[in-house]
Design a protein that fits this description.
This protein is mainly β and about 525 residues long. It has a single domain (about 25-520), classed as Methanol Dehydrogenase, Chain A (8 Propeller). It is built from 4 helices and 40 strands. Strand 21 and strand 22 (about 280-285) form a beta hairpin. It is globular, with a radius of gyration of 22 Å. Residues about 1-20 and about 525-533 have low confidence and may be disordered.
Length: about 525
C-alpha cells in the first residue's frame, strides 16, 4: 500500500512538473499575445487580498525594465533542481533566482553575471553620457532577453562604457550557470549603404552610444533578432534590425529603416519584436521620414513586414503607413510607441491579422497578407481602424478568448471584442476598468485555464510606486486585487515605466526599482502551489 501511495505521489509530482509553463520571451510568445492559458492555480475566486499577496522579494542592483523570464526544473550545478526566474538590470547584470522562495540558500541568487568591471574602466552608460533622462540613472540592459530552452541559453544585449568608448554586445549565457557560451560575447557592429543622417562616404554606421536597445529580443529559426531606437530622439539615429546566429553568434542580416533620411526607430515601449509561424517579422517604426510611396527606402511611422533574410539581407515584403504620417511625424505622435500584436490564425475573411496602436490612440486592425501600403486620403484600405479609441499607447495590447486588451495613457484599461465571423473588433469597448491611469499606460498580461478563469494583470507605474492590479478578464469593472489594499505587506517597490509582470505556475513576478517581488496564494507551499498541511 505504501509503495502504491509513493508511486502515486511520484506520478503526481511528475505531472505537475511537466504541466509547468515556461515564459522565455517578452509577453509569452512570438505573437506577443501576453496570455498564459495554462494557469491552474490562480483564479478569480482566490485572487483577493485575504488569500493573495506578496510572498517575498529579491534585491537586485539596478532598475528592471526587462520582463522577468521563467524556466522550470533547471539543474543548477551543486545546487540541485530549481524553478528559476531570470532578471536583467540596467546595472548590466543578469540574475537567476529560485522562483518559489527566498529561504535558506535561496536567499542568494543561484547565479549572477555582471557585464561591467569598474576596476578595468568598464561601467554602465550614464544618463548624462547620452544626454537623456529617459533611462535613469544608468543604462545597461533594457530590452527583455530571450531564452532558448533547447540549448539552455539566454541571449541578452548589454550596453557599456569602456575607458571612454561605448560598446554594445550580444551575450549568450548558460541558463544553469550564467557562463558565456558559443565564444561570446560579440560586439555589435553594422553599416548599410545610405545618404541619410550621419552618413560618411555613402554609409550609415551603427552608433552604440546613440542607439537604444529597447524592444524585447526575438528567437526564431536559428537566429536572435534585435531592434534599436534612440535615447530621447537625440540624433543622428535610425531604426536598426539585426539578426545573429544562435550557435555561432555570427551576424546574419542587417536592416535600417531610414537609410536615406533619419529617425524611424523601433521603440515599442519595450515590447518584443513579433513574428508569425512562417517566420515573418513585424515591427512598427516611430517618427521619421516616409518616402516609399515616391520610390524611396525610408519607412518612418510604418508597420513593416520582413521575411526571413536571404544573402544576409532583409527585404521588405509588405507594409502599412497611416495616411496622416506626415502629421504624426511633425507632432511627435509616433506610430511605433506601441508594440505589434499578432492574432491567432482565423477562419473568417482575414486569416492572418495584427493589431497595433501608437501615441495617437488609433487602433489598427491589419491583414498581415495584404497590409495596404499607403493611401494619402484615409486608412480605409486596411481591415479596420478605430480612430482615437484608446489613450496614447506606450505599451502593447494582449489577447485572450477573442478579446483584445489595451492600457492607454490617460485612460481606463479597455477590452474590445473580436468577432471571428466578421473578422472585426467591436467599435466601442465591451468592458473597461474603473481605475484611470495616466502616463504611461500599462501592458496587460492574461492568465487563464484555457478559456476560463481569465485574469488581466497590469502594473500601474504612473506614480512613484508600482501597483500590481488584477481584473476579471471577462469584466474589467471587477477589480479582484491591487497591491495598495494591504500596502505594508504587498508593496511592489519603485515604479519602472513600461514594466510587465510575468505570471507562471501560481505566481506573479513584478519588476521594479532594484527589486523583484513575487506574489502568490498566501499560506501555500511555495514549491508546488499546493495548500500547506
Amino acid at each position: 500500500m505504501k509503495s502504491l501511495c509513493l508511486a502515486t505521489l511520484i506520478l503526481s509530482l511528475a505531472a505537475l512538473a511537466s504541466a509547468q509553463v515556461r515564459v522565455t520571451t517578452f509577453h509569452n510568445d512570438n505573437s506577443r499575445t501576453g496570455q498564459n492559458t495554462s494557469e491552474t492555480i490562480l483564479t478569480p475566486a482566490n485572487v483577493h487580498v485575504t488569500t493573495f499577496g506578496k510572498l517575498f522579494s529579491q534585491a537586485v542592483d539596478g532598475f528592471v525594465y526587462a520582463q522577468p523570464l521563467y524556466v522550470p526544473n533547471v539543474s543548477i550545478p551543486s545546487k540541485g533542481t530549481h524553478n528559476v526566474v531570470y532578471v536583467a538590470t540596467e546595472h548590466d547584470s543578469v540574475y537567476a533566482f529560485d522562483a518559489d522562495n527566498n529561504t535558506g540558500s535561496n536567499a542568494s541568487p543561484l547565479w549572477k553575471t555582471s557585464f561591467i568591471n569598474p576596476s578595468q574602466g568598464i561601467t554602465t552608460v550614464s544618463s548624462n553620457d547620452v544626454g537623456c533622462s529617459d533611462l535613469i540613472p544608468e543604462i545597461g540592459v533594457t530590452g527583455t532577453p530571450v531564452i532558448d530552452t533547447a540549448s539552455g541559453t539566454l541571449y541578452v544585449v548589454a550596453k557599456t562604457k569602456e575607458r571612454g568608448k561605448f560598446v554594445q554586445r550580444l551575450h549568450a549565457l548558460d541558463i544553469a550557470t550564467g557562463a558565456e557560451k558559443f565564444g561570446g560575447p560579440v560586439v555589435i557592429r553594422a553599416k548599410v549603404k545610405g545618404s541619410g543622417d550621419g552618413s560618411v562616404n555613402g554609409f550609415i554606421t551603427f552608433d552604440p552610444l546613440r542607439h537604444s536597445q529597447r524592444p524585447g529580443l526575438l528567437l526564431q529559426s536559428g537566429a536572435v533578432y534585435i531592434g534599436w531606437a534612440s535615447h530621447c530622439d537625440i540624433g543622428p539615429y535610425h531604426g536598426w534590425i539585426m539578426s545573429y546566429d544562435t550557435q555561432t553568434l555570427a551576424q546574419k542580416a542587417v536592416w535600417n529603416s531610414t537609410p536615406d533620411a533619419g529617425l524611424g526607430g523601433f521603440w515599442a515601449s519595450g515590447a518584443g519584436l513579433a513574428a508569425d509561424a512562417r517566420f515573418n517579422l513585424f515591427v512598427a517604426s516611430g517618427n521619421g521620414t516616409f518616402d516609399v510611396d515616391g520610390g524611396g527606402r525610408d519607412f518612418g511611422d510604418s508597420i513593416i513586414k520582413l521575411p526571413l533574410p536571404t544573402t544576409n539581407r532583409f527585404k521588405v515584403s509588405d507594409y502599412f503607413t497611416p495616411y496622416d504620417q506626415d502629421s504624426l511625424e511633425n507632432g511627435d505622435v509616433d506610430l511605433g510607441s506601441g508594440g505589434v500584436l499578432l492574432l491567432p490564425d482565423q477562419t473568417g475573411p482575414h486569416r492572418h491579422l495584427l493589431v497595433q496602436a501608437g501615441k495617437e490612440g488609433t487602433v489598427y486592425l491589419i491583414d498581415r497578407d495584404h497590409m495596404g501600403h499607403y493611401n494619402p486620403n484615409n486608412n480605409d484600405q486596411i481591415v479596420q481602424h478605430l480612430d482615437l479609441a484608446v489613450g496614447g499607447v506606450w505599451a502593447m495590447p494582449a489577447w485572450w478568448n477573442n478579446n483584445v486588451y489595451f492600457g492607454g495613457s490617460y485612460d481606463f484599461i479597455k477590452m474590445y471584442a473580436f468577432n471571428p465571423s466578421t473578422g472585426l473588433l467591436s467599435t466601442s469597448p465591451t468592458s473597461e476598468s474603473a481605475v484611470f491611469i495616466s502616463y504611461p499606460g500599462p501592458t496587460p498580461s492574461i492568465s487563464a485555464n484555457g478559456d476560463s478563469n481569465g485574469i488581466a494583470w497590469v502594473l500601474q507605474t504612473d506614480g512613484s510606486s508600482c501597483i500590481l492590479r488584477a481584473y476579471d478578464a471577462t469584466n474589467l469593472d471587477n477589480e479582484l486585487y491591487d497591491s495598495t489594499q494591504n500596502s505594508s505587506r504587498d508593496g511592489a517597490g519603485g515604479a519602472v515605466k513600461f514594466a510587465v509582470p510575468t505570471i507562471a505556475n501560481g505566481k506573479v513576478y513584478v519588476p521594479a526599482v532594484k527589486t523583484l517581488s513575487v506574489y502568490g496564494l498566501l499560506g501555500t507551499n511555495q514549491a508546488t502551489g499546493s495548500a500547506a498541511q
